[in-house]
Amino acid sequence: MEKQPLFKWKHYQPDIILLTVRWYLRYNLSFRDLVEMMEERGLSIAHTTIMRWVHQYGPELEERVRHHLKSTNDSWRVDETYIKVKGQWMYLYRAVDSEGNTIDFYLSESRDKQAAKRFFKKALAFSYVSKPRVITVDKNPAYPVAIQELKEEKQMPAGIQIRQVKYLNNIVEQDHRFIKKRVRTMLGFKSFRTAKIIVSGIEVMHMIKKKQTHQRVPSAQNQKAFIHRLFGLAS
C-alpha cells in the first residue's frame, strides 16, 4: 500500500495505524491489549507507539468525518456527564437531537454559564448542525442564562423554546452510556489535552456507529472502508 503524506516517515503501513486507532476508539481495549493483538499478526508494536498514533490521528479522524455528517434536526437535548482528568472530575457537555444523533460535545473544566456558551457556540459553528427550535435541558441554571445571552448577541434565534423537563432528556442520558463505558476502562486521563483528543475520537466513532454519515456504514467492514477513503487509502 502506497503511503500518503499524512503517514510519511511512519515505520508501519497506514492500514495498520488506522486499524489500531479505530479499534482503540471504538472498543473497550487498552493499548497493551492492542499490542498483544498485533503480535498475533506478527507485528511488534510498543504500546507507546499506538498511544502516539491515537493522539495524532484521532483529531484528524474527527475533522474528516465532520465533513460527511448528515444534518441534525432542530430539537436539541443537552446534558453533561463527567470525565476524570488528573484525578479531578471534568464536565463533558453533550447534545443530541430528538432522533438520538450527536450534535456536538465539549469538554470543560468548569460547569457554568461561560462553559455552556462555549459549548453552544462550538456546536452552532458546524454546517451540519441545524439551528435549534427547542432546547431541552436539565435543571442546571446556567443554561437559560447562556441561551438568553446568545440570543441577545444574535448567535441564536430569538424564538428558541427552552424546556426543563427531565424525562425528555432520557435520550441524551442514555447516549452518555457508550462514552462513559469506554472512558471508564481507561481509568482516567493524565492531562486535559489528552482527554480532549481521545474523547473527540470516541465521539466521532460513536457517530459513525449511529449511521450519521451520508454514506451509511452499518457493518464493521464498511466502517473500515469508509475511514480508509477519508484518509485516501485504497479499500
Automatic annotation (TrEMBL):
It holds the Pfam family DDE_Tnp_IS240. The keyword DNA-binding applies. Keywords: DNA recombination, DNA-binding, Transposition. Residues 55-235 form the Integrase catalytic domain. GO terms for molecular function: DNA binding. GO terms for biological process: DNA integration; DNA recombination; transposition. Signal peptide: none annotated. InterPro entries: DDE_dom, Integrase_cat-core, IS_Transposase, RNaseH-like_sf, RNaseH_sf, Transpos_IS6. Involved in the transposition of the insertion sequence. This is IS6 family transposase.
